[in-house]
Q: What sequence folds into this?
């Protein structure tokens, strides 16, 4: 991956807070849900309930697709990412604690939530390692994408 593509991907990941995540349901259909995320480099982390459909889907099949995008007032300013990769449950308590500490940093202008942050025992944390990324940038032309294989 060239430096410009990596810089663009990292900028989008840092600027946005929410992604649409698709997992594979037992019947083979994709299930898309909206989840918050944090990232370290090109690695993304998200949380879900212990027995959520996402967690159940990922226990069977760790493949995911996701999108991260903005919503500018000018159509020719649309930027975003589409990724395919694998999601693995985070078992390491130190990594889990680090991810939970990163989450509030994505919302610097918000007051602390009225309830305490969940602990690693109360939820599942997944790490997404992307294998392919499409970088969407309409400023380079309508629906322009650059495909990056990792």
A:
């Amino acid at each position: 991956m060239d430096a410009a593509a990596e810089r663009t991907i990292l900028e989008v990941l840092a600027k946005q807070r929410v992604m649409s995540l698709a997992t594979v349901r037992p019947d083979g259909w994709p299930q898309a849900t909206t989840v918050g995320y944090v990232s370290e480099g090109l690695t993304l982390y998200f949380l879900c309930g212990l027995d959520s459909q996402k967690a159940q889907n990922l226990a069977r099949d760790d493949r995911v697709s996701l999108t991260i995008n903005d919503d500018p007032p000018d159509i020719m300013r649309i930027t975003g990412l589409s990724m395919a990769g694998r999601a693995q449950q985070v078992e390491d308590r130190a990594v889990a604690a680090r991810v939970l500490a990163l989450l509030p940093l994505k919302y610097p202008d918000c007051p602390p939530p009225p309830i305490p942050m969940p602990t690693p025992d109360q939820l599942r944390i997944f790490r997404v390692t992307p294998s392919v990324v499409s970088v969407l940038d309409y400023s380079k032309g309508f629906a322009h994408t650059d495909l990056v294989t990792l």
The first strand starts at residue 18 and ends at 24.
